[in-house]
Design a protein that fits this description.
Elements: E1 9-11, E2 13-15, E3 18-20, E4 27-31, E5 38-43, H1 47-62, H2 64-67, H3 70-86, H4 88-99, H5 103-124, E6 131-132, E7 139-147, E8 150-154, H6 160-173, E9 177-181, H7 188-199, E10 207-209, H8 214-223, E11 229-233, H9 236-245, E12 252-256, E13 262-265, H10 271-283, E14 295-299, H11 303-316, H12 335-351, E15 354-357, E16 372-375, H13 382-385, E17 392-398, H14 401-408, E18 413-414, E19 416-420, H15 424-433, E20 438-441, E21 456-457, E22 460-461, H16 469-473, E23 474-482
Parallel strand pairs: 1-5, 8-9, 8-11, 9-10, 11-12, 13-14, 13-19, 14-17, 16-17, 19-20
Antiparallel strand pairs: 2-3, 4-5, 6-7, 7-23, 12-22, 15-16, 18-21
Bound molecules: nicotinamide-adenine-dinucleotide (NAD).
Nicotinamide-adenine-dinucleotide binds at residues 154-158, 163, 181, 183-184, 213-215, 218-219, 222, 233-235, 238, 241-242, 256-259, 290, 387, 389, 415.
């Protein structure tokens, strides 16, 4: 598959504007998931480094950043965006080598979203207003929104740069400072954008990047008494640990967790579009998407046709070198993730579902899994209930609208859902009845930084994106001025 040699990089932490080795002097290896070769040696941050980064972030918050005009912060964020754009090729390649995502996907989807997010919040920086609320005749009463302070941002490996920016951009726009802990599998682009932030003129300490493992670096950040807020994207299990860990100083917490989203196809849908979107909904990013349409719910009248057409789509996907523009699906991110997905495929067969496409590893080098479709899936099966986080579609039959709603709402997750139908009344009914943070109608998967993103129950709480995110990083303060009786 990939034959070229890629030299091994050494990547140090970024604390207070300087690239430094970890206090422990330890490094860990990051592999290229397409070749299984060592790509980089990453400095392994732990509690001591997190502490240094938090002190730096506090200093920047109390100092230069905290005292800057909001409009100037916005200008710096625009310069940051411009530098990311000018270094796009390097970032795209680095992200692809580190995560296995196809370069075509990163260029078309991740990078534009990173820039859109940064520019959106740059524009919002000087529009974070309080309110005059005339509560009493003898007082002038108003609110101001003050930045929360030091933010710990912990992100996963499936969209390393994009999800990091979902947290960095609004936090910085609000005047907070950030300690970012990237996923241990994908630290490189986070470190690089930390450098670009400095080059843009954002003061040292405003954005520190400390790679390391969850149990050490991540946990130290969550437990640190001088961190005011934790914003986390990852799995529900770790989300729960984060809630416990942040209880010490009662940090504010936002959790964006997993999903098992239903994509519901009614017989009156445009089946060409529905099947195409069902394929993209589960195979995009090798299925490593929190809102993947991993449960395709299909009305019994069109069930066989959808299974057949979805399976054909799966078989037509082009797996291969992520740097090849023709590649539509790259490897999974790691050997562990590949094993997890293959174990679920084996489990699905044991549970009695039938594989109609894929069902095995693809090739012998790299962590590729063939796009897989399971037909005959029963709602209670584990492959229908648990997040697999891989290219595995569970196609489930339903009989009528009530049945579809029951199945769609019948997991512990509530992140997203899709509905395909030409019946205007039906789609409105479903939009109301589906338990999800986002309901897509006759489309599946798009997100936009202007629209709130997040879920409920095992999918977490709080919303990112939009102006709602301002509440994630600011506190309202009431000022009450006694003016005497009028
Ligand atoms: P993960 O929860 O294992 O890890 C996420 C991050 O948390 C990593 O940086 C990891 O180092 C860190 N971490 C692990 N243990 C920790 C601890 N005890 N304390 C602090 N930090 C810790 O998740 P993952 O495997 O990297 O990502 C996959 C999960 O993320 C899936 O469940 C997926 O659905 C979810 N996800 C959700 C969204 C969303 O917006 N809702 C987006 C992407 C991914």
């Amino acid at each position: 598959m990939i034959t070229e040699d890629v030299s091994v990089l050494t990547a140090d932490l970024l604390i207070h504007g300087r690239r430094v080795a970890a206090a422990s002097r330890r490094y860990f290896e990051s592999l290229n998931p397409a070749t299984e070769e060592v790509l980089a040696r990453i400095a392994e941050g732990d509690a001591a480094d997190i502490d240094a980064a938090v002190r730096s972030a506090r200093e920047a918050f109390e100092g230069a950043w905290g005292q800057m005009r909001a409009a100037d912060r916005g200008d710096l964020l625009l310069r940051f965006a411009d530098l990311i754009r000018r270094n796009e090729s390097e970032l795209v390649e680095m992200e692809s080598l580190d995560s296995g995502k196809p370069v075509s996907t990163i260029r078309r989807q991740d990078l534009p979203a990173v820039l859109d997010t940064l520019k959106y919040y740059a524009g919002l920086a000087d529009k974070i207003n309080g309110q005059v609320i005339p509560a009493r005749p003898d007082a002038l009463t108003f609110t101001v929104r003050e930045p929360m302070g030091v933010v710990g941002a912990i992100v996963p490996w499936n969209f390393p740069l994009m999800i990091a920016m979902w947290k960095i951009a609004p936090a910085l726009a609000c005047g907070c400072t950030v300690v970012l802990k990237p996923a241990e599998l994908t630290s490189l682009t986070a470190l690089r954008i930390g450098e670009l932030a400095l080059e843009a003129g954002i003061p040292a300490g405003v954005l520190n990047v400390v790679p390391g493992f969850g149990k050490t670096a991540g946990s130290a950040l969550v437990n640190h008494p001088d961190v005011d807020k934790v914003t986390f994207t990852g799995s529900p299990g770790v989300g729960r640990e984060i809630l416990r860990g942040s209880a010490g100083n009662l940090k504010r917490v936002t959790l964006e967790l997993g999903g098992k989203s239903a994509n519901i196809i009614f017989p009156d849908a445009n089946l060409d579009s529905a099947v195409k979107a069902a394929g993209a909904g589960i195979f995009f990013n090798s299925g490593q998407v929190c809102s993947a349409g991993s449960r395709v719910l299909v009305h019994e009248r069109v069930y066989n046709e959808v299974v057949e057409r979805l399976s054909e789509r799966a078989q037509r996907m082009r797996l291969g070198d992520p740097r090849d523009a023709a590649t539509s699906m790259g490897p999974l991110v790691s050997a562990t993730q590949m094993k997890r997905v293959l174990d679920y495929i084996e489990l699905g067969s044991r549970e009695g579902a039938q594989i109609t496409a894929g069902g095995a590893r693809y090739g012998e080098r790299g962590y590729f899994v063939a796009p897989t479709v399971f037909a005959g899936v029963a709602h209670e099966m584990r492959i229908s209930q648990e997040e697999i986080f891989g290219p595995v579609a569970a196609v489930i039959r339903f009989t009528d609208e009530t049945d579809a709603i029951r199945l769609a709402n019948g997991t512990s997750y509530s992140l997203a859902a899709g509905v395909w139908s030409a019946d205007i009344e039906r789609v409105h009914r479903l939009a109301r009845k589906l338990k999800a943070g986002t309901v897509w109608i006759n489309t599946f998967g798009p997100t936009d930084v202007r629209l709130p993103w997040g879920g409920m129950r095992d999918s977490g709480f709080g919303r990112e994106h939009g102006d709602i995110a301002i509440e994630n990083f600011t506190e309202p303060k009431v000022v009450w001025i006694n003016t005497g009786r009028p």
